[in-house]
Amino acid sequence: MTTTTLPTSQLTDLVAGVRTAIAQHADWNDTAQLVAEELRRNLPTPDVLTPEQRLGSPDRYISHTLHVEPDGSFSIIALVWRPGQLTRIHDHVTWCAFGVIQGVEHEDLFDAELRIVGQSDNHVGDVSGFAPPGDIHRVHNTTDSTAISVHIYGTDVTAIGGSARRYYD
């Protein structure tokens, strides 16, 4: 279940920077990189979420909406991952930038035949951006502590029900 968090002062500069990046009207790959740079400069701290929100859920990773741009051009979501929680293999409906603000998130990257073509452990402060096609991945908290990341998607994910375009078995 997604919950909504009211914007905080931590998000003010980030939101303004994302607006500036999007206003350049670059292609999706370049936009993802421009937004990633803004996220790197303005990466929130875990207290962008309440202590209760930072606990996550024992059942699955959970998302918290931090901001949705009024025109639907982007949304900022925090994801909370307890130990062992993971996504299904998926791709996205639009570009994305993400940054880790607590813990470590392991990412497996796949090619179109679902062969692993890359793996990385993303630590606090690590920021990246990507865009379809070629964005098939799975995220997994492989550590024994809670991980939190901030994701910026090039759409209002609350209106479309999520960021995933397809799931793969």
TrEMBL record:
InterPro entries: CDO_1, RmlC-like_jellyroll, RmlC_Cupin_sf
Coiled-coil segments: none
Organism: Kribbella capetownensis
Gene3D superfamilies reported in the protein's UniProt record: Jelly Rolls
Identification of the protein by name: Cysteine dioxygenase
Family: Belongs to the cysteine dioxygenase family.
Chain positions recorded as Fe cation binding sites: H90, H92, H137
Cross-link for 3'-(S-cysteinyl)-tyrosine (Cys-Tyr), residue positions: C96-Y153
Residues annotated as transmembrane: none
GO function terms (MF aspect): ferrous iron binding; oxidoreductase activity, acting on single donors with incorporation of molecular oxygen, incorporation of two atoms of oxygen
Pfam families: CDO_I
Top-level lineage group: Bacteria
DNA-binding as UniProt keyword: no
Entry keywords, A to Z: Dioxygenase, Iron, Metal-binding, Oxidoreductase, Thioether bond
